[in-house]
Write a structure and sequence with these properties.
5-stranded mixed β-barrel; binds adenine; Rossmann fold; alpha/beta; 229 residues; 31% strand
Amino acid sequence: MIGIIGAMRVETESLKAKLTNKKSEVICGVEYVSGELSGKSVVVAQCGIGKVFAAICAQTMILRYGVSALINTGVAGTLSEKIGVLDFAISTAVVQHDMDTSALGDLPGLISGINIVEIPASKSLSETACRLATLQGNKCAEGIIASGDQFINNAEKKNWIRDTFGAIACEMEGAAIGHVCYVSGVDFVVIRCISDNASGGADMEYPELVGIAAVRSQKLVEAIVREIG
Ligand code: ADE
């Protein structure tokens, strides 16, 4: 079974609507909808916004549904000149940009205990995702995706995340899902369609584009599940 996690309703509803032989249960306030997508077994959940909700959901999918891989779908802000709004960022690795024990001499983003900054995503899932995104007519970049419990909306913070971690996109859940997968030995990939430039200002595109970007990301997830599930 493959687990699919999105933070917001708009990031999961079109996939949930496509499931057949649906079953649903609520655990700790999150609804898990399992069934078949293109004939493949999946469980889909809207986890809520932020790293803690994402981790709760990922661990539940692993322990209760025994998922063999987790896909995080949704929208993100771009940190790279190579990708703009409605293009795709696919994770080769994820980082937690707000994890900071640098006062103790650690590198920014170091996750104590597992002692790494970058959590590697599944190479084969990332390659498949980018290939299928391109086949669907999208521009796609593979690279590091940075997560933190903040909506990034100013150039200074955006540039700091890009320059410190070499990240191509920012969002709020992927690295928490990656963290859970890492300690659980489960493959994962983060798939994000760009909804904004993460730099604020008068030309904030997010409200206009979030719906379109979220649906595009789910369309790509469907193609990936069809190929790998
Ligand atoms: N999700 C979409 N855009 C984002 C941004 N700019 N910061 C954090 N999460 C996001």
